[in-house]
């Protein structure tokens, strides 16, 4: 997962005419890290913070904010310089989906490639760590004050980002287990290239996975040294 994400960030640098310059692609650890912190602070399975937790007063360490400052992972930019952040999420520690965070509107869009309907309240619980922690981290970075004039269509508020579920008829679906990670990587690749029409099917996943394997192998020296 992370090896291919590294390749996509590298492609953003070298093929800027194809890949959007104002899109950040995060690694697979970011969601897991926030989820672990969320469970530690709020309790496992919480869909909202404890009353004692204050979103805009929470103290984040310099290491915590390194991602938002664009210092890690390699190839990203400070969040005040981008419009969209793509976050692969390992939901339930077993299933990959994609959270696309639109920073110009302050919204999260969840794209799930699995052909199974999940109650919205369950998704709110799974994405609570993003919905509450992201605006808190952006506030600590003075995100709104650092954005270029005209970039914002909203003012960062002391409330969680709303969660939107992208319709399943807009996201390629799979029935067999094991393909959710490859589907998620493909979604990231398309969105990073500013393509909003996803034109592959489950039957093509074998070829797509082979293509990804070859690219990871061909870039293995670069990946191992980064």
From TrEMBL:
Gene Ontology MF terms in the entry: cysteine-type peptidase activity
Database matches in Pfam families: Peptidase_C48 (PF02902)
Ubiquitin-like protease family profile domain sequence ranges: 1-191
UniProt keyword Phosphoprotein present: no
InterPro entries recorded: Papain-like_cys_pep_sf, Peptidase_C48_C
PROSITE patterns documented for this protein: ULP_PROTEASE
Superkingdom of origin organism: Eukaryota
GO biological process, one term: proteolysis
Keyword field: Hydrolase, Protease
Family recorded in the similarity comment: Belongs to the peptidase C48 family.
Protein's name according to its UniProt entry: Ubiquitin-like protease family profile domain-containing protein
Record lineage: Eukaryota, Viridiplantae, Streptophyta, Embryophyta, Tracheophyta
């Amino acid at each position: 997962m992370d090896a291919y994400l590294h390749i996509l960030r590298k492609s953003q640098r070298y093929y800027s005419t194809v890949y959007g310059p104002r899109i950040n692609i995060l690694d697979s650890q970011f969601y897991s890290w926030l989820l672990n912190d969320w469970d530690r602070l709020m309790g496992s399975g919480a869909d909202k913070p404890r009353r004692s937790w204050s979103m805009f007063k929470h103290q984040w360490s310099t290491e915590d904010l390194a991602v938002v400052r664009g210092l890690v992972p390699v190839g990203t930019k400070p969040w005040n310089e981008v419009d969209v952040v793509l976050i692969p999420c390992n939901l339930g520690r077993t299933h990959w989906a994609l959270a696309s965070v639109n920073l110009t509107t302050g919204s999260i869009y969840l794209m799930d490639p699995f052909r199974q309907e999940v109650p919205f309240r369950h998704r709110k619980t799974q994405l609570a760590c993003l919905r509450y922690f992201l605006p808190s981290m952006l506030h600590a970075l003075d995100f709104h004050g650092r954005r270029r004039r005209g970039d914002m269509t909203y003012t960062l508020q002391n409330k969680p980002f709303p969660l939107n579920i992208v319709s399943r008829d807009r996201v390629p679906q799979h029935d067999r287990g094991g393909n959710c990670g490859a589907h998620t990587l493909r979604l990231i690749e398309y969105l990073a290239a500013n393509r909003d029409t996803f034109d592959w099917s489950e039957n093509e996943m074998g070829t797509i996975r082979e293509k990804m394997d070859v690219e990871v192998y061909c870039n293995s020296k670069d990946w191992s040294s980064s």
